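hey so u asked for the seq, here:
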Amino acid sequence: MVYAVGHKGDKCMFTQIFNKPSNKKMPTPPSTPPPRGIPRYSPALRGLGPSFIPECLNHFIYVWTIYGNSFWMYPVDLIDNLLFGYAWDGSDWKYIRIPVNLIDSFY
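ran it, structure tokens below
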């Protein structure tokens, strides 16, 4: 299943948007949970845009959205300003897509 990132109040929501096509191989999720700590928000990293994201592929990053939610992510692909990867929901990895313009900052 593929999820989209949204928000409800101050809660981050992962909403199922479609099942993966049966002929498409999904990337493997991380085999471990993300790091335990949460990095300090850095306004200096705001609005970096898609040019810095390829350097972060296949590494844990912490994402803050323009809605004020935040979560650990393991990005695996960037296609047409959509970032695809796995987001930690507190107990498991969910395959998500998030438009780059919804990312306020990341670490």
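The chain has a mean pLDDT of 80. The chain has one domain: 2-21+46-106.
lmk if thats what u needed
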